[in-house]
Amino acid sequence: MEVSTETRYFNEKSLASYIDTSQHTLKYWRKTGQGPKFITLPNGRIRYRKEDMGIVEENNMCFREYKQRCFDEAEKVITQETKRDDKKNNINRTK
């Protein structure tokens, strides 16, 4: 009896969608030893065991909060830089 790997495993694209991140992030995590455990098939394709995803979901909540904090911080920096540039441009226009 053959067991379908599609029911027991995520491929990279489906896992990225499932945990709301990019495939590039998954590749980076594999490269740096972070993220969920994975299996490399003989053909080079990557699979993630669905039974390991309970741990990922728990960690993903932390990741989503971290990602949101990063976006919020980046938005603050961009806003500050924009205000600084606008102020600088207004000074230059008045001269």
Uncertain parts: none
Shape: elongated
DSSP strand (E) fraction? 5-15%
Distance between termini? Answer: 82 Å
Number of strands: 3
Instruction: Describe the strand arrangement of the main beta sheet, using strand numbers.
Output: 1-3-2
Rg from C-alpha positions?
Answer: 21 Å
Main beta-sheet annotation: 3 strands, antiparallel
Helicity, in percent? 55-70%
Q: Topology as H/E string? A: HEHHEEH
Structural class: mainly alpha
Q: What would the CATH topology of the domain at 5-69 be?
A: Multidrug-efflux Transporter Regulator, Chain: A, Domain 2
Q: What is the architecture of the domain at 5-69 at the second tier of CATH?
A: Orthogonal Bundle
Average pLDDT taken over every residue? 77
Q: How many helices?
A: 4
**Class of the domain at 5-69, according to the CATH hierarchy?**
Mainly Alpha
Secondary structure elements and pairings:
Layout: H1 5-8, E1 9-11, H2 12-18, H3 23-32, E2 39-40, E3 46-49, H4 53-94
Antiparallel strand pairs: 1-3, 2-3
What does this structure look like?
The chain is mainly α. It has a domain at about 5-70: Multidrug-efflux Transporter Regulator, Chain: A, Domain 2 (Orthogonal Bundle), CATH 1.10.1660. The protein is built from 4 helices and 3 strands; from the N terminus they run αβααββα. The protein has helices at about 5-10, 10-20, 25-30, 55-95; strands spanning about 10, 40, 45-50. It has a 3-stranded antiparallel beta sheet. A hairpin with a 5-residue loop joins strand 2 (about 40) and strand 3 (about 45-50). The relative contact order is 0.11. The model has no long low-confidence stretch (mean pLDDT about 75).
